[in-house]
Amino acid sequence: MKKRWWGIIFTIVSIFFLTACSASDKSQTVNGTGTGKHGNIKVAVTFKGDSIKDIKVLKQNENKVLSKPVYSQLKDTIVAKNSTGVDVVSGSTATSKGYIAAVNDAVKKAGISLKKVKAKTSTTEPKIAKTNNYDVVVVGSGGGGFAAAIEAKQAGKKVAIIEKMPTVGGNTLISGGEMNAPGNWVQKRLGIKGDSVASYYKDTMKGGDNLGDPAMVHILANNALGSAKWLRDDIHVKFLNDQLFQFGGHSYKRALIPVGHTGQELVTKLNAKAKSLNIPIYVNMRAKSLIKKDGRITGVKAQYQGKRNITFKAKNAVILTTGGFGSNGSVKNLV
Asked: Who's near 130: CB < 8 A, 6+ residues apart?
């Protein structure tokens, strides 16, 4: 009789133990939704017990370039730490918060409590030498930085781009992407006549209260159309062929509009061109100071992710394209 009761107790305990173990190891995939900068972000989160194993984005309408590190780097951090209490991606704050909110929504629906773990050291961090040698080092990966790097590379130089943000694009990425070009092909298509390089120069000088350097403004005016054609023909940027924008201060509708009405079209195509030319781009790399030797600039001292000091030597030139369209503050801090 005692053996029988012991057998029953053992069976009950075994069933309870197996049930508890299967519950803790239960795998499930739950959808969650959060609000990003441009609408809802919907994700599918796969759990095993109380641990996040994977996160897949099902639906979103965020900027493709800015959201890339959110859906890769931020995802890896959340999975590694098994926690949504992580830092947002610099430059993609709204998208990061929406993504984290979506994951939290899935966690709540799954009815679990995440168990924090000590994240292992990432093995995907790129190997960057302490000292790197190039002919040309470009600081900044906006439109100006990409254009400079591509031209230098096609001239036969060994080129690198360093960018402080976790993704490329700079101010160009978040701009409307419109580009003023006198006498452009869309003006001809729309029957707009009378525009010229001289008119463009005059508008630009007047708009700047005649404080601009005339020689530099002449270079801008004389090369605006050629630069637009370069973007169209060599970089394969797509511009609308039936619309133009007229900025304040301009006497003609002369601003070409990229597809999508944002700088994303320009940055995506410039980035693709740089990659096709094998131009290395170091993101999360903040330029800290310029290296000067014998009266000339010979390189840049930078910092990777705010903790590793990296030196970039430049045999021919360091090109500064940082500070945004309306400020050279970042450049002043380097000099």
From this structure: 309, 310, 311
Q: What is the pTM of this model?
A: 0.76
* Mean pLDDT across 167-196: 94
96 vs 69: CA distance, rounded Å: 9
Of 172, 177, 210, nearest to 322 by C-alpha is 172
Strand 131-139 relative to strand 159-162: parallel, antiparallel, unpaired? Answer: parallel
Output b/e per residue, 37-52; b: 16+ Cβ within 10 A.
beeebbbbbbbeeeeb
DSSP run (H or E) holding 177:
none
Structural domains of the chain in order of their starting residue, each with its CATH number: 26-110 (3.30.390), 131-334 (3.50.50.60)
Q: How far apart are CA 241 and CA 314, in angstroms?
A: 41
Distance CA 221, CA 235 (A): 21
- Asked if 195 contacts 187 with a C-beta cutoff of 8 angstroms, the reply is yes
Strand partners, 29: 46
Query: pLDDT for 74-113, tens place per residue?
Result: 888 898 888 888 888 877 889 999 899 999 898 989 888 8
Q: Strand (E) positions, the chain? A: 27-36, 39-48, 51-59, 131-139, 159-162, 179-180, 239-245, 255-258, 281-282, 285-293, 296-304, 308-320
